[in-house]
Amino acid sequence: MFGGFGGYLIYLAILLIIPIWAQWKVKSTYKKYSKVRNESNMTGAEVARRILDENGLYNVAVEEVKGMLSDHYDPRKKVVRLSSGNYHEPSAAAQAVAAHEVGHAIQDSEEYAFLKFRSALAPVASIGSNMSIFILIAGVLFSVSGLVLIGIIFMAFAVLFQFVTLPVEFDASNRAMNHLVSSGVIRNNEEKQTKKVLNAAALTYVASALVALLELIRFVLIFVGMNED
């Protein structure tokens, strides 16, 4: 993809800079809006419970989980888990994060196609993510193009998983905004604040997908080069 050693260094720098920048963006945005009190004075837990109930998801629990930005929805146990700060604090960030995770719960209840596809891909994508790099390195070191091809196939499933994740996350954020507005939880200029939190979080998924695609393309080019020699 990049010619020469200097080009390879540039490539490595890009691989490092993109995710680091995305992580910095989400953390700085979250930190800023976690200090901004929301006008409804509702904690993240209260926001999550309200939207869940409005959608008839009384069976989905809301629980506190340790860590920062460890928020997630567990489809197996039907639980929205919010990090301590988001669970207890009535901040602009907390309501955005809580609504986003509830968005995943709503997707699950409606059997959202991309969510089902991602869940089906998860096992093979996990294997691909963990094993592909070792297979690829072995193939390159020993000049075995067949091994490189196998590694590429495994990596492709991991990359596909990353890209299928994008519509799942964007849709959850759109659902979050719609429900926050329709339920009257956010008011006045809070819509802009909420979008900034959700958009910053989305950057991490875009960055991960982009980096994964660049790596896949690099090994495809290596494979093509090995077969041309």
UniProtKB/TrEMBL annotation:
Designated name of the protein: Zn-dependent protease
The keyword Transmembrane belongs to this UniProt entry's keyword annotation: yes
Residue spans crossing the bilayer: 6-24, 120-142, 148-168, 197-224
One BP annotation, GO: proteolysis
InterPro entries on file: Zn_peptidase_2
Keywords: Hydrolase, Membrane, Protease, Transmembrane, Transmembrane helix
GO MF terms, alphabetically ordered: peptidase activity
Taxonomic lineage of the native organism: Bacteria, Bacillati, Bacillota, Bacilli, Bacillales
Species for this entry: Pontibacillus yanchengensis Y32
Pfam families (alphabetical): Zn_peptidase_2 (PF04298)
